[in-house]
Every structure is written in C-alpha cells, then in structure tokens.
Design goal:
This protein is of the alpha+beta class. The protein has 13 helices and 21 strands.
C-alpha cells in the first residue's frame, strides 16, 4: 500500500468531501474603469491575462504596471487566491486558473479580463493543492460547461458557484502535492535545458545571418518575393474535416478549411496581426486576411528567407500598430532590407540551421518529445490522484 493510500484509509475511509465554490469562497473582479493611458503610465503591478493563462502558480516577478491612485478602490490579490481567465475564443480555454502560492510583498492587482476566488477559510485548502485540482480533468470539465458564446466564450460566475472540487484532509493534499511536484520539477528541468539549446541555436543563427553589406548584396523584400495577402475566413466556414490549416493573426491555427487561396505550392507565411509571427510551411495552407504570404523569386531560397526573418522577429513586433485592431503594415514588410548572397551560400546556411532546428524542435525526437511524454505522464497521474470516492 502506498503512502497516499494509507493516508486516505486513515483520514477519509468513507470517501472525500466535495464542496461547491460558493461554499468555499467569494468571487471578486479584476481592475475596472481603466483606460489605455493608465497602463502606459503605471505605478503599481498587476497580474496579466497571460500570467494566469500560462502558469499553475502566479508568477509574482511582474513588470506590468497600471496607474492606481491613493484613494482608489480596486481588488488586490492575496495569498491563496485562485485567479480565473474570464473569456477565450474557445470554451476549452475559458476559466483557466493560476493560484497565488506566495505572499506578495507589495500591492498587486488583477487585470480586467480575469476574476478571482477568495477562500473563506484558508486553512482547509493549501494553495499548492488548489493549483493542481483546478487544472484537473474533472474540475476543468465542470468549468468549461459554464462558458457560453458564439465567436468568443465567457465564463458565467453564477454557474461557477456550483462547480465542485474535492477537499481531502490536509495530509492527503500535501502528499498529492509532493508527488505532482516531482513531475512538474522534472518537466521544468527538461524545459530549461531545451530553452538553453534554443538560445544557443538563436545565437548561431543570428551570427550566421549577420552578413556584412560590403560582402553581400541587400535588397528590399518586395523586390525579391511574390507577396500576397490572405482572404477573409469566417468561423462558420471552418471544420475539422477541412484539408488545410487556417492561419490568421498568429501562427496558432484557427482550424481547418476545405480549400486554400494560395496559387499552387506556397512554402511560407508570416502573420501580420497582433502577433507578427514568422512561420514556414511545406504544406498548402489557408492564409486569412490578417496574414501575408511570400514565395521567393529565382535568386532567393524560401527557407533562407524564413531564417533571416526570424532574426527580425523583435523588430517586426515593435512595428505592430498599437490600435483597437493591432496590425503589421504591408509597407513595413515590403521595405524591409534582406541580404541576398549567392544561392550556394543560402543553401549552406539553410543546411546548417536546419540541423540545429531539428535538434531543438523535432517533436518526434529529443527533448521536445521527452517533455511531451513527461507532460502526458503528469496529466495522467494528476487526474488519477485527484479522482476520489465521494463521501456519502
């Protein structure tokens, strides 16, 4: 018998008690009444939407600031709070949680697109336990059911009141945390190693592509590629049965489409929306209206162009127009100067960088595959450990 089984037998032989969120705590809202100017001239830290979205535990190493006046009444986060994303483009990403597992040393607020749950009794749930239980399959399934919408889905706080979570005795919670922490620490170590390799790869890539103008001809991008803009796609046209991935304002596919608007083989795409991401495709795809896609002319290797534009990722992001609909203008892309060495030099650079790229990115081999396997193993044991017999 494992230690966890012994603890369950000792502390809750008749099953584990489940409690509704309405019994456990009260919901509070994020920032209200803020304008864009308040975020450009801030004096106080706040937790962003992506901080909640990406992290099991809130990252308190915060650089994002908002202006808060001395007498202003806004909700501050506290140790033990569970923070939720309020809305998303898909129901599966609504209500994702991040838990405040450390004491903040200064006032920190929550962005307006999220909301929090503050426990009435912080002694019955440990923050490290809640960070796992709220991301478990059984709880996520309940939270997803609270979301509704058409093009954007929003969590209903009224329905969230009825979401139930298991509340085992503290020794059981602590043993579950000990086991799951081992999985997450191993994944974190592998991820750190992969990050180090990627930095090494990016360093060599940037060094190789820093081609001196006295030795290499340069040209504006518009003179070396056939450049086209995508065509508008509405969500009702997307289906899982479509043959082509759809890219719009980032390189995360929106879904599938039955046809593509590229004339024949199209090996390259850049997202021109808020993300300003650069990507490469060997397969036909559908470029939506927020994307530009290119095909290099005779003296420009498409893969070489992709690697060079990756070195310009930060520059392109800095040129995204800050407006209600962020966009990267066609003019910025067309007038970007790119090196055009001989085709032999381009191919040699591509061969070297492809090798590095495979080491870092190949999902079927190496560290990425190991990380993916460990993540699946963690999710399996998390859901197994957090599935309890309900106390009658």
């Amino acid at each position: 018998m494992s230690k966890l089984e012994e603890l369950l037998e000792d502390y809750c032989p008749d099953g584990v008690e489940f409690k509704k969120l309405s019994e456990l705590g009260t919901f509070y809202s994020g920032l209200s009444g803020k304008s864009k100017k308040d975020f450009s001239d801030g004096n106080t830290k706040f937790v962003t939407y992506m901080n909640v979205y990406k992290n099991l535990a809130v990252d308190l190493n915060i650089s994002d600031l908002v202006k808060i006046s001395e007498k202003e009444r806004q909700n501050q986060i506290e140790f033990g709070d569970i923070l939720f994303t309020g809305s998303s483009e898909t129901p599966d990403e609504c209500g994702l949680t991040s838990v405040v597992t450390k004491e903040a040393t200064e006032p920190i607020y929550l962005n307006s697109f999220c909301f929090g749950l503050r426990l009435k009794d912080k002694t019955i749930l440990t923050p490290d336990y809640t960070k796992y239980v709220f991301r478990s399959h059984n709880v996520r399934k309940q939270i997803i059911r609270t979301a509704s919408g058409v093009t954007r889905f929003n969590v209903s706080k009224a329905k969230m009141q009825n979401v139930e979570i298991p509340v085992p005795p503290l020794p059981v919670q602590e043993e579950i945390v000990r086991i799951l922490d081992m999985f997450t620490e191993l994944t974190a170590e592998l991820t750190a190693e992969l990050t180090a390799r990627k930095k090494q790869y990016e360093y060599y890539r940037d060094q190789m592509l820093e081609l001196r103008r006295e030795n290499t001809p340069y040209a504006r991008l518009k003179n070396k590629v056939v450049m086209q803009r995508g065509v508008r796609v509405v969500r009702t046209q997307l289906s899982e049965e479509g043959n082509y991935l759809v890219f719009q304002n980032s390189l995360t596919p929106l879904g599938h489409f039955d046809k593509y608007n590229c004339d024949g083989y199209t090996p390259f795409v850049i997202a021109a929306g808020a993300a300003a991401e650069v990507g490469f495709s060997n397969e036909p795809f559908w470029a939506a209206d927020d994307c530009f896609y290119f095909d290099g002319k005779n003296d420009l290797n498409n893969r070489f162009l992709y690697f060079y534009l990756m070195t310009k990722q930060n520059y392109l992001k800095s040129k995204v127009r800050k407006a209600s609909v962020p966009r990267l203008s066609r003019n910025v892309l067309e007038n970007l100067e790119i090196p055009v060495p001989s085709m032999d030099v381009q191919k040699e650079i591509v061969n070297i960088l492809d090798h590095f790229d495979t080491l870092c990115s190949d999902i079927s081999d190496g560290l990425p595959a190991e990380i993916e396997a460990r993540q699946k193993q963690y999710e399996y044991y998390r859901d197994k450990l957090l599935t309890f017999k309900r106390k009658a």
